[in-house]
Structures are given as C-alpha cells and as structure tokens.
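hey so i finally got around to running the thing on that chain from the lab meeting. sorry it took forever, my laptop kept dying and i had to restart like 3 times. anyway pasting the input first so we r on the same page abt which one it is
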Amino acid sequence: MDTGPAAYEPLATIGEVARRAGVATSTVRYYERRGLLRPDARSSGQRRYRPATLRLLVFIGMLQEAGLSLDDISGVINAATIDEWKAIGRRRLEALDEQIARLQHARSYLQGALLCRFDHPLTECATMGAEVDRRLQETAILPTSAAPATTHTAASTSSRPAP
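ok and heres what got predicted. didnt touch it at all, straight out
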C-alpha cells in the first residue's frame, strides 16, 4: 500500500477536473485517448485525478491557446530533453510573430481606410487602393503600368474612379 505523500492527495472526479480546467469531460477523455494525460486512480470504476493532473490539464489548455497542435503538445509533455520542448516552443513563437506582423499590418490599413473621407474603400480610398496595388505587385497578377487609377488623395475632387 502506498503511504507516500501522493497517497494522501485529494482525488477529484472527471467532472471536477473538467470544470476547474474549463473543458468538457469529453475533452478529458479525448486527451486520455491521445496519451496526453491519464487518470491517477479509479474509485468504483470512476476516474480520479490528483492536483498534478489538473495542473497538466490546465497546461495543455494554455499551450492550445498559444496555438500548439495536440501533436506538438504531446512533444512538449513527453520531451526527453530541454532542447526538444524548446524547439517546439521556438517554432510556435516564430509562427506567432509572423501572425502578429500580418495582423498589425491588417490593422494599419483598416484603420487608415476608416479615416478615408471618400465613399468606397475599394475604388475611392488611397490607403486601401495602395494595399490592393501592393498585393497585386507581390503576385505579379497586374503589372504596375496597367493598374487603373482608381484611388484618390485628399486633393482629389472626384468621388468616382477614372475611366
């Protein structure tokens, strides 16, 4: 019989750990099937979990919020070395940095478009028109010389695209 400190830890039901971690009980069972966690004991056939397993469940949720896949999370949890889990973390951090840069750029042109005093963002806003032109130049779909003059500046008096 186990008489160590872990033997005296309070055990929680699957419903209790799910509630505390903010997930459904089906999620806990799914993570068990995936090998991410396991029940610490059974009582009358019911799964029971120690506080350390609840912490692991919350940790899994944190990594999911950071955008890691369950495969990557398994890699972090089961990493044999510090280098293994840090490599996974670095890859995700790089992806997050790229995503943040894209979102900041999108925020910038959308914010600029909201300041535009013309009627339509596609045909009459210099900010959005410049972003459309930039994207077209990146993909070489429309050569710069063939781009229609549809954007307006503050000095423009017409509110319609050039013919």
